[in-house]
Amino acid sequence: MRDNIKGGALTETTLLVLLALHRSNHGYGIMKFIESSTKGRVVLGAGTLYGAIQALEKKKWIVLNSKDEAQNKKKEYIITELGQQKVKEELQRMEEIQQLALSII
After folding, report:
1. Which residues form the Transcription regulator PadR N-terminal domain (predicted)?
2. What's CA 16's distance to the chain center, in Å?
3. How many whole angstroms separate alpha carbon 79 and alpha carbon 13?
4. How far apart are CA 30 and CA 21, in angstroms?
5. What SS3 class is residue 65?
6. How far apart are CA 71 and CA 69, in angstroms?
7. Per-residue pLDDT at 70
8. Which residues contact 72 (CB under 8 A, 6 or more apart)?
9. Which of 105, 6, 22 has the alpha carbon at shortest distance from 61?
10. Residue 76 phi/psi, 5° resolution?
11. What is the CA radius of gyration of the chain?
């Protein structure tokens, strides 16, 4: 998962995983959320997803949801406040690009 650190841009995978985790979710649930939300345009393999999850945990943008872990055998993750802030920053960046494009075309 290579996010453009200098420009602040997130990869599509990163953004989609963060959006999928506004509610506590496990890996398979994240994959299904992304596939459904993108109408099948994006289908993540397990390796891609779990690589993204590991990277997001390192950045502290998501955490293991310990409340759900006690009740469920599957590991569930949830977005942190820092992760939510990154999503907002990305949406602002994307809006600026859209406005630029609309001013040109």
Report:
1. 16-88
2. 4
3. 14
4. 7
5. coil
6. 5
7. 54
8. 26
9. 22
10. -115, 145
11. 15
The set of long-range contacts for 40-46, using a CB threshold of 8 Å and a minimum separation of 24, is 42/12, 42/13, 42/16, 44/13, 44/16
Nearest partner of 14 among 2, 27, 32, judged by Cα: 2
74 three-class SS? coil
* Integer Cα distance of 51 and 2 in angstroms: 11
Residue carrying the six token digits 């390192």 = 58
Q: Are 1 and 51 in contact (CB under 8 A)?
A: yes
The Cα angle at residue 78 between residues 76 and 80, in degrees rounded to 5: 150
> Residue 66: its pLDDT value, please?
78
pLDDT 10s per residue in the chain (105 long)? 555 556 679 999 999 999 999 999 999 999 999 999 999 999 999 999 999 999 999 999 999 997 655 566 789 999 999 999 999 999 999 999 999 999 999
Instruction: With beta carbons less than 8 A apart as the criterion, state whether 30 and 17 touch.
Output: yes
